[in-house]
Amino acid sequence: MTNERFEVGRHVAASPAEVFAVLTDPQGHVAIDSSGMLQWAEGERVAQVGDTFVVHMDRESLGDLPMGKYDVTVIITRLEPDAAIEWTISGTVQPPIKHLYGYTLEPTPEGTLVTSYYDWSQIAPRYRGVVNFPVIPEAGLKATLGILARTVEKH
């Protein structure tokens, strides 16, 4: 981890395949989002690097920038079935900022160790000092993992 990347982990009582199914579904991203920014999504389940889907966003949920409602295209940059998914976004701000979000999944006897990360080390120089990074705090990733666990665990 660097000062431009953080990651958090949580054990989830579900198989890597069950977790991966949520993470490759555009609606799954909306369902587990703890920020409140992701409103709804359009697109098919992602299956390979380069696949995309659209997420309708509401920045008012964060209250940090007066962007209101806008759309972003999620672009898959890494995809390993039942093991890893990573993406960047392209949206209102152009050229794209180049921050990365992702998950790695490691099978455990109890289910899956899910690690969520946010990496803004590759952001374009023009955005440094203009946009406050991280956009999503570490606590936001932890909360999303809690919602993910609630979504996939069978009680």
Question: Describe it for me?
Answer:
It contains 3 helices and 7 strands; from the N terminus they run βααββββββα. With 155 residues, the chain is of the alpha+beta class. A hairpin with a 3-residue loop joins β4 (69-80) and β5.
Given as residue ranges, the uncertain stretches (5+ residues, pLDDT < 50) are none
Instruction: Give a count of the beta strands, DSSP E runs of length 2 or more.
Output: 7
Portion of residues in helices?
Answer: 10-25%
Distance between the termini: 34 Å
Main sheet strand line-up: 1-7-6-5-4-3-2
Task: Calculate Rg over CA atoms.
Answer: 15 Å
Class by alpha and beta content: alpha+beta
How many separate helices? 3
Strand content: 35-45%
Mean pLDDT: 91
- The succession of helices and strands, N to C, reads EHHEEEEEEH
Summary, kept brief:
The protein has 155 residues and is α+β, with helices and mostly antiparallel strands. Helix content is 19%, strand content 37%.
List the helices and strands and how they pair.
Blueprint: E1 5-12, H1 16-23, H2 26-32, E2 38-42, E3 52-58, E4 69-80, E5 84-90, E6 100-108, E7 111-119, H3 138-152
Antiparallel strand pairs: 1-7, 2-3, 3-4, 4-5, 5-6, 6-7
Question: Which key terms come to mind for this protein?
Answer:
155 residues; alpha+beta; seven-stranded antiparallel beta sheet; 7 strands; 37% strand; globular
